[in-house]
């Protein structure tokens, strides 16, 4: 790791993300339809509610699903959609147990190149291509995981000096830039949709 992560903007949560590959993967999984800081604080909240100082893929994979949903739903909820996201986190951990013996870092250990890494990330439950590319960029930019061709595999998220995603957040200032970029992208998409593909001049 190049430096401690600053994704949750909360010291204990960021410390867990920095030392725990599973926490980082789980934060990325939760990062949808809620603010980024909320998503990346989630793994710390879950660990604390489990009475642990880290997440354990084996424990979560075998956890009673209803009890796990209850743990996600406790106030403050881990996610806006605690039921479905609790299920997704369990699916992720079950996949890691089945394919990587529960070791999240094995997903990127020994990869042959960036494309291989992208394929592995894309195969994870809850990780579509965009999420896989953003996490690949995060691994390269902040975890020092840089197989040959990693920037190309990460697409636009791998660009040096960009502020497109969570991969580029190193503190409050860059968080503001990423948020501004996302809002602008949303605005542009909305405007394009309003214009419509077949609008008559």
Number of helix segments? 10
Number of strands: 0
Class from secondary-structure proportions: mainly alpha
Low-confidence stretches: none
Mean pLDDT across every amino acid position: 93
- Shape, principal axes of CA atoms: globular
Q: Give the amount of beta strand, in percent.
A: under 5%
Strand/helix succession: HHHHHHHHHH
**Secondary structure: helix percent:** 55-70%
Q: What is the terminal separation in angstroms?
A: 53 Å
Rg estimate, integer Å? 17 Å
Sheet with the most strands, sense and barrel status: none
What does it look like?
With 201 residues, this protein is mainly alpha-helical. Helix 5 packs across helix 6. It contains 10 helices and no strands. The model has no long low-confidence stretch (mean pLDDT 93).
Any key phrases for this structure?
globular, 201 residues, single chain, 10 helices, mainly alpha
SSE blueprint:
Layout: H1 11-19, H2 21-30, H3 36-49, H4 57-62, H5 65-73, H6 82-100, H7 114-122, H8 129-142, H9 150-153, H10 172-195
Helix pairs in contact: 1-2, 1-3, 2-3, 5-6, 7-8
């Amino acid at each position: 790791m190049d430096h401690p992560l600053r994704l949750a903007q909360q010291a204990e949560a960021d410390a867990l993300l920095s030392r725990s590959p599973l926490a980082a993967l789980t934060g990325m999984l939760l990062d949808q339809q809620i603010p980024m800081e909320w998503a990346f604080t989630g793994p710390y909240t879950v660990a604390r509610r489990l009475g642990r100082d880290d997440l354990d893929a084996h424990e979560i994979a075998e956890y009673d699903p209803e009890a796990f949903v209850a743990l996600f739903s406790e106030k403050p909820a881990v996610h806006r959609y605690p039921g479905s996201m609790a299920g997704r986190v369990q699916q992720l951990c079950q996949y890691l147990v089945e394919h990587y013996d529960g070791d999240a870092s094995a997903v990127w250990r020994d990869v042959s190149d960036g494309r291989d890494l992208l394929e592995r990330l894309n195969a994870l439950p809850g990780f579509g291509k965009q999420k896989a590319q953003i996490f690949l960029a995060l691994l390269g930019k902040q975890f020092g995981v840089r197989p040959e061709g990693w920037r190309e595999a990460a697409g636009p998220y791998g660009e040096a000096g960009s502020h497109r995603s969570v991969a580029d957040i190193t503190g409050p200032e860059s968080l503001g830039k990423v948020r501004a970029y996302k809002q602008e992208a949303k605005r542009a998409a909305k405007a394009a949709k309003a214009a419509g593909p077949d609008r008559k001049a």
